[in-house]
Specification:
38% of the residues lie in helices and 20% in strands. With 200 residues, it is of the alpha/beta class. The chain binds glycinamide ribonucleotide. Keywords: Purine biosynthesis, Transferase.
Length: 200
């Protein structure tokens, strides 16, 4: 299942990929932390069930974490993909499911919600995207895959983010497909994909 907060183009890439059975995964549900976003519309268009759990509808962040966990559990997902989900997940969700996140920078550089803006204002010449497992920190979990994207003269946040997202969508689809088809193992901070990895 996929968690979104915005336009949902990464979600769309997963929906498109899962149209082919050989992909090995399908999106069983889409959850959001807010209404009225394009990500939810994309799910509805694909006939995928949706739900919204807003932090503000719960007395505490812990209650939100509990409600989100219960709602995700209804769909019994093998994997939860955070694809532009702009909330820090709580300990219950993280203790109950394997969660993968996609981030628009080469972690550990530029963690947090404004990665592209911060990379630009730092003046890096190369940035990129990271697919990683989510742990209790903010963008600190074990890295699964990364790809570099060059910053071009004259880039603004929007143009750079769009180029990153083109790479990011392809990388996310590739990694989620491989995880679904072949499994993965984690040893310390090292994530290995593949059947051999699952056996070792
Ligand atoms: C993606 O670039 C994703 O990496 C980023 O939001 C974008 C969502 O795009 N996530 C973060 O910045 C999380 N810190 P999308 O809604 O079109 O898939």
């Amino acid at each position: 299942m996929v968690l979104v907060s915005g336009s949902g183009t990464n979600l769309q890439a997963l929906l498109d990929a899962s149209a082919d059975e050989a992909f090995g995964a399908r999106v069983v549900a889409v959850g959001a932390d807010r209404d009225g976003i394009e990500g939810l519309t994309r799910a509805e268009r694909a006939d995928v069930p949706t739900f919204v759990q807003k932090v503000g509808d719960h007395a505490t962040r812990e209650k939100w974490d509990e409600a989100l966990t219960a709602q995700i559990a209804e769909f019994k997902p093998d994997l939860v993909v955070s694809a532009g989900f702009m909330k820090i997940l709580g300990p219950r969700v993280l203790g109950s499911f394997s969660v993968v996140n996609t981030h628009p920078a080469l972690l550990p550089a530029f963690q947090g919600a404004h990665a592209v803006r911060e990379a630009l204002s730092y003046g890096v010449r190369v940035t990129g995207c990271t697919v990683h497992l989510v742990d209790a920190g903010v963008d600190t979990g074990p890295v699964i895959a990364q790809e570099a994207v060059a910053v071009q003269d004259g880039d603004d946040e929007e143009s750079l983010h769009e180029r990153i997202k083109t790479v990011e969508r392809r990388l996310l689809v590739e990694i989620v497909g491989r995880m679904a088809r072949d499994g993965w193992t984690v040893s310390g901070r090292t994530v290995r994909l593949g059947r051999a990895a699952s056996r070792s």
